[in-house]
């Protein structure tokens, strides 16, 4: 139950076509299959880029918050470790909430909503907001992490499920096995670059620049989903389902 429920997506894995049909039908089926393969080749790389951005953003905020709590707010390292661990555990209540309200939105709707919340959470990283919100800087950082961590993780998990729903036939560079390999590599690259670039940004340009960086990461995550993945999903009436879900939530 810890994993997102994608039963509504159906199994859209590419399969081999039947060659016993008449020539005319085979030609139409061939054109349809060619178009389908092209669409899948857009969805899978798009979801891989989303995974890399998620790993980059999460690892960056993890390292920067630990650094700021220790160097700026003089927190003990053990307390910092426990705090970051508790922040990670916030993924559990969000998953429970998603399980209870899963039918209120489509998969696309959930990714949009979660990424939008992550964008708002990234704004809390701005140091200049301390005077406006009148809160302690350390508390503001922790609240930002509580918002950004689970929302980015769950939205990427949903994107990963979509990716595996759209893998190509066995033998392709984007079949099930290769897609998981690229997914692990893209995640590793994001986790490698995230902490290094984030620390450099904070040390050279300050905390507000890091907040802008996190906003850019979350925005890029959403833009890649909207341009490279969502238009090519093999899920019928996905946009209508999303709009209906949004109306249901608003009521």
UniProtKB/TrEMBL annotation:
Signal peptide: none annotated. Residues 1-34 are annotated as: Disordered. InterPro entries: MFS_trans_sf (IPR036259). SUPFAM superfamilies: MFS general substrate transporter. Keywords: Membrane, Transmembrane, Transmembrane helix. It comes from the Eukaryota. The chain crosses the membrane at residues 42-67, 79-97, 109-132, 138-155. This is Uncharacterized protein. The lineage of its organism: Eukaryota, Sar, Alveolata, Dinophyceae, Gonyaulacales.
């Amino acid at each position: 139950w810890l994993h997102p429920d994608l039963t509504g997506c159906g199994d859209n894995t590419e399969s081999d076509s039947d060659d016993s049909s008449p020539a005319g039908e085979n030609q139409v089926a061939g054109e349809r299959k060619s178009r389908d393969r092209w669409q899948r080749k857009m969805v899978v790389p798009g979801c891989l880029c989303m995974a890399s951005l998620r790993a980059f953003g999460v690892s960056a905020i993890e390292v920067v918050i630990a650094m700021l709590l220790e160097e700026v707010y003089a927190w003990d390292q053990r307390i910092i470790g426990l705090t970051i661990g508790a922040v990670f555990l916030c993924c559990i209540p969000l998953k429970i909430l998603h399980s209870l309200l899963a039918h209120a939105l489509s998969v696309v709707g959930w990714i949009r909503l979660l990424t939008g919340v992550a964008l708002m959470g990234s704004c809390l990283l701005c140091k200049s907001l301390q005077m406006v919100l009148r809160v302690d800087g350390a508390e503001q950082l922790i609240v930002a992490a509580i918002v950004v961590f689970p929302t980015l993780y769950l939205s990427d998990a949903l994107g990963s499920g979509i990716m595996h729903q759209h893998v190509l036939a066995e033998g392709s560079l984007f079949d099930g096995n290769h897609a998981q390999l690229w997914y692990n590599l893209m995640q590793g690259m994001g986790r490698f670059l995230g902490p290094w670039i984030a620390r450099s940004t904070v040390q050279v340009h300050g905390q507000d620049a890091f907040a802008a960086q996190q906003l850019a990461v979350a925005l890029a995550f959403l833009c890649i989903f909207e341009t490279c993945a969502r238009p090519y999903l093999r899920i019928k009436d996905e946009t209508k389902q999303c709009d209906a879900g949004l109306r249901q939530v608003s009521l």
